[in-house]
Design goal:
10% strand, disordered N terminus, single chain, 8 helices, elongated, 337 residues, alpha+beta
Length: 337
């Protein structure tokens, strides 16, 4: 280690110790000379001139030689991993070779066993099991087994049935309360009041006109809802029971869905069937039931002759009787004998 002589002390700046630590510069003279040091690991520190002279300067950083140790550990791990992978590959290759050898041995054994074997041209008919009637003991045993299975199922499903029945009963009670509320039998705690109607006061006539206008407005906005007398009566009872004299379209939009959920909306009537087309009547000439010619006698000379229907219709009553030889007995009144 080369040093420079200074007045009163020896300057060790810009030198290097035997451990590779560089002495950079003198940073303090009193109470004793202090130097800045730089370790190959990158750590900076200070040391005394006494430590430099006694060659006892050491790096006290916690990272000293850590990187080198880590590199060595990583290299060792890679070496172990590579050797493990190589050993695993050798084991896999050996397993494949053993499997192939086993397969070849099995095929060779099968060839030896099947040497000289030929498939028969016909086979024995397969035996079909015949169904024999059950005995009374078997029938009773089957009945008891089915009864036990049924009881086990009932016992297993009993909590579910009880819970379902309780749920259905609760649902029916809720539906009953909702229907009573919507029917106006009790006051609805969830009744909606339109804030726009606060402080509005109208005469009964003006209120009736206002309500009709709001109903018409709702029906124009919701044509899918069918109104009939029963629905209008139910709405009137509901609003009357809850103290609403003026009804707005917004209030109807809140209450109609509740009526629909409770199943209180009337069904829309089915459209009337289209009238069946009526075929035009076809008139056909009916055959005349009367004979076209009738045999009779001439009213003048009494000789046989033939009359047409028209000729007979033109005769008088007396000539008609003569022509057809119609004789009438004398009319005898019952009080004359």
């Amino acid at each position: 280690m080369s040093v420079r002589e200074m007045s009163g002390l020896t300057d060790h700046s810009h030198t290097e110790t035997s451990t590779g630590i560089k002495i950079l510069a003198l940073v303090a003279r009193r109470p004793q000379p202090m130097y800045e040091t730089l370790c190959p690991c990158g750590a900076r520190a200070t040391t005394t001139q006494t430590a430099i002279r006694s060659n006892s300067v050491r790096c006290l950083s916690s990272e000293h030689d850590v990187a080198e140790a880590r590199r060595a550990q990583a290299a060792e791990r890679r070496k172990v991993q590579d050797s493990s992978a190589q050993a695993q590959q050798r084991v896999q290759r050996a397993a494949l070779v053993l499997e192939q050898a086993t397969r070849d041995a099995s095929l060779a054994k099968l060839d030896v066993e099947m040497a000289g074997y030929s498939i028969p041209t016909s086979r024995r008919p397969r035996h079909e099991p015949t169904q024999t009637p059950m005995s009374e003991r078997d029938r009773q045993s089957l009945r008891l087994a089915r009864e036990e299975v049924r009881k086990d199922d009932e016992e297993r499903n009993r909590p579910l049935r009880e819970a379902t029945a309780k749920l259905m009963d609760t649902h029916r009670k809720i539906q009953k309360v909702q229907r009573s509320t919507l029917a106006g039998e009790v006051v609805d705690v969830e009744a909606y009041a339109d804030a726009a109607m606060d402080g509005v006061s109208l005469t009964p006539e003006d209120g009736d006109v206002f309500n009709r206008a709001e109903f018409r407005r709702y029906r124009e906005l919701h044509p899918e809802i069918h109104f009939d007398d029963s629905l209008l009566e139910s709405l009137g009872k509901y609003f009357g029971a809850n103290g609403f004299e003026l009804v707005t379209c917004r209030m109807l939009e809140r209450i109609i869905p509740r009526f629909q959920a409770a199943g209180l909306l009337p069904d829309r009537p089915a459209p009337a069937p289209a009238p069946a087309p009526v075929a035009a009547p076809v008139w056909t000439a009916q055959p005349d039931s009367k004979p076209t010619s009738i045999k009779g006698w001439n009213v003048v000379d009494g000789e046989p002759t033939t009359y047409t229907t028209r000729q007979l219709e033109r005769l008088s009553a007396e000539d008609y009787r003569r022509a057809l030889h119609i004789h009438t007995a004398a009319i005898v009144q019952p009080h004359r004998f």
